[in-house]
């Protein structure tokens, strides 16, 4: 039997990058997948690919900054597939990479809305449906950026730090419903990676060399199996955990300071 046979999963931001890779791995493991994606063309294309793989998939246009949109996506999963077993909170809307003093309130609000609030709303909406199934698994995405205080990502670091707290709180309280809540900090060749690689010659090679495993991760083959593990019965006694899925880059860390920023300014 495949790892996720007869499971129903909703994956936010599954129209590309890591979310798409996880969705592809999930259907190969037998899950029915809701592609909760804002971009209709990307969402429809990924859904068609998942069905071509022999999987059951539904695209639902989802704006994760809207509570009503998230609630509707959760309900669509239940209506289409009969329930919900797994929620993967992957989506977020990036803001410009600028210094903290140049980040605006609007940038912080956008990041909080599409990460912390999105996870809060989706987790709470998913809970009654998971309870009806006798339990479930929630996988939230955080980031190594929070651990190193990555430059130009102050709003993102703030939000992803909150995701860890939310994950642990839900794990502590919802274990009584057999709902497990874990987080991963993935790095892989997603949309942002390919954009940086196209704009910066040698970026891909440097990125691979920084990791003890000597390569950059593949969204489907490297990230997908870990998320599937957390969604499956193989991790049935595991909750409140935060895992690095990054080829080991959390060991040496990395220097994110831009080259053009002086060491000291007055």
Model description:
By secondary structure, the protein is an alpha/beta fold. It has a single domain (8-190, 219-242), classed as NAD(P)-binding Rossmann-like Domain (Rossmann fold). Helix content is 46%, strand content 14%. It has a seven-stranded parallel beta sheet with strand order 3-2-1-4-5-6-7, sandwiched between helices. Helix 2 (40-52) links the parallel strand 2 and strand 3 (57-61). It is globular, with a radius of gyration of 18 Å. It starts with 7 loop residues before the first strand and ends in a 21-residue tail after the last strand. The model has no long low-confidence stretch (mean pLDDT 97). Belongs to the short-chain dehydrogenases/reductases (SDR) family. One of its GO terms (molecular function) is oxidoreductase activity, acting on the CH-OH group of donors, NAD or NADP as acceptor. This is SDR family NAD(P)-dependent oxidoreductase.
Fold blueprint:
Blueprint: E1 8-12, H1 17-28, E2 32-37, H2 40-52, E3 57-61, H3 67-81, E4 86-89, H4 105-132, E5 136-141, H5 145-148, H6 154-174, E6 179-186, H7 191-199, H8 203-209, H9 219-231, E7 242-245
Parallel strand pairs: 1-2, 1-4, 2-3, 4-5, 5-6, 6-7
Helix pairs in contact: 1-9, 3-4, 4-6
């Amino acid at each position: 039997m495949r790892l996720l046979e007869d499971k129903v999963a909703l994956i936010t931001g599954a129209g590309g990058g890591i979310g798409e890779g996880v969705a592809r791995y999930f259907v190969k493991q037998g899950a029915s997948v809701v592609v909760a994606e804002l971009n209709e063309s990307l969402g429809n294309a990924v859904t068609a690919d998942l069905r071509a793989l022999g999987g059951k998939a539904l695209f639902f246009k989802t704006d994760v900054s809207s509570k009503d949109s998230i609630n509707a996506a959760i309900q669509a999963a239940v209506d289409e597939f009969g329930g919900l077993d797994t929620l993967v909170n992957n989506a977020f809307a990036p803001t410009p990479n600028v210094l903290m003093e140049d980040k605006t309130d609007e940038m912080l609000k956008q990041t909080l809305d599409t990460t912390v609030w999105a996870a809060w709303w989706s987790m709470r909406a998913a809970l009654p449906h998971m309870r009806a199934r006798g339990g479930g698994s929630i996988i939230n995405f955080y980031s190594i950026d929070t651990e190193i205080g990555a430059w130009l990502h102050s709003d993102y670091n703030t939000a992803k730090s909150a995701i860890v707290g939310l994950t642990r709180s839900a794990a502590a309280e919802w274990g009584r419903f057999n709902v497990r809540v874990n987080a991963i900090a993935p790095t892989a060749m997603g949309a942002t990676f390919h954009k940086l690689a196209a704009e910066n010659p040698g970026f891909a090679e440097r990125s691979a060399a920084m990791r003890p495993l000597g390569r950059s991760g593949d969204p489907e083959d490297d990230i997908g199996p870990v998320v599937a593990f957390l969604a499956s019965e193989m991790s049935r006694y595991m909750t409140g955990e935060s895992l690095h899925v990054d080829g080991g880059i959390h060991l040496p860390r990395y220097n994110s300071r831009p080259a053009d920023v002086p060491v000291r300014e007055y």
